[in-house]
Specification:
- It holds the Pfam family GrpE.
- The protein has helices spanning 2-48, 52-91, 94-116, 120-140, and strands at 143-145, 158-164, 175-180, 183-185, 188-191, 193-198.
- By secondary structure, it is an alpha+beta fold.
- A three-stranded antiparallel β-sheet has the order 1-4-5.
- Strand 4 and strand 5 form a beta hairpin.
- Helix 3 packs antiparallel against helix 4.
- The longest helix is centred in the first third of the chain and has 47 residues, at 2-48.
Amino acid sequence: MLKKKKKENTDNTENINEVNNEQLHDEGQEQAPVAEATATETQQGTAAAPTAEEKLKDELAQANDKYLRLYAEFDNFRRRTIKEREEARKTEGKDVIVALLPVLDDFERAQRAMDKATEVAPVKEGVTLIQNKLKNILGQKGLKEMTSIGNAFDADLHEAITNIPAPTDDLKGKVMDEMEKGYTLNDKVIRFAKVVVGA
């Protein structure tokens, strides 16, 4: 009986193994087409969706395009500003010159009048009027005369030509005389006053 049971157990085990092998074989055949289908789908998906490398190449191409456009724009801006600066330099004194043209006309009229003049007083008066007109025009443009005589010597405003003995102690270190007037343009010194200082 034992032999029969052992034989039956052995037969059952062999049957189970055969059934399992058949199932695995069948499943393997079924799984193979599924795997092949998945591989095909993956290949088709790869063709449809770009890879990371292709995305990076596209981003690099876009960045290069933006860089080239920006560089070209900056280069155009630089050229335009250089051209505008050159034009501004050529015409920067235009408004002052245009404002001074009437003074030049007055000087020409004064010269013609001096040829016919018999008296000095009217000529002197005419020159004074022209000088006042010139000062007014320059004053409108921001030019101011410095007043130096009697003020303390200031190296930021004055240029000392010489020292002379001061007649009194309170004039020591102060401007005694002015050889050439100093001028400021919009509160900035454009010409230092040449002065004589008391010592």
